[in-house]
Amino acid sequence: MSTKQTTRAARIRRHTRVRRRVAGTPERPRLAVFRSNQHIYAQLIDDAAGRTLVHASDMEMALRASDENKTARAREVGKLVAQRAKAAGLDSVVFDRGGFRYAGRVQALADGAREEGLVF
């Protein structure tokens, strides 16, 4: 088994452990984060209904044109998802780090969402 496969499998095991405790409801959806090597994605998920309520990523045209580093773009994604959540009438979420360490871009996204008033 290659290092890439074992690293991915370990992240998925961590994510499974996190998901045992974290579940989104209509009133308090789950803010799920996925981080690839180049991009970061965030979505608010209602696990009871099994649907995505709000989403944002740095692949969107507004953020793609920026010359900032990946951490700064992650903070902007957090702000964007929080703004969209507020527009949808949501102000409180549970954070799902997706098996990634709460550091770097994942933390920047969370901080950006908190700056815009999202509570978790």
> What is the N-to-C succession of helices and strands?
HEEEHHEH
Shape: globular
Specify the CATH class. Alpha Beta
Measured on Cα atoms, how large is the radius of gyration? 14 Å
A few lines on this structure:
The chain has 120 residues and is of the alpha+beta class.
Helix-strand blueprint:
Elements: H1 3-21, E1 30-35, E2 40-46, E3 51-57, H2 61-64, H3 70-87, E4 94-96, H4 104-115
Describe this protein's structure.
The protein is of the alpha+beta class and 120 residues long. The protein has one domain (3-115): Nucleotidyltransferase, domain 5 (2-Layer Sandwich), CATH 3.30.420. The protein is built from 4 helices and 4 strands; from the N terminus they run H-E-E-E-H-H-E-H. It has helices at 3-21, 61-64, 70-87, 104-115, and strands at 30-35, 40-46, 51-57, 94-96. Helix 3 runs parallel beside helix 4 (104-115). The model has no long low-confidence stretch (mean pLDDT 94).
List key phrases describing it.
19% strand; 120 residues; four-stranded mixed beta sheet; Nucleotidyltransferase, domain 5; alpha+beta
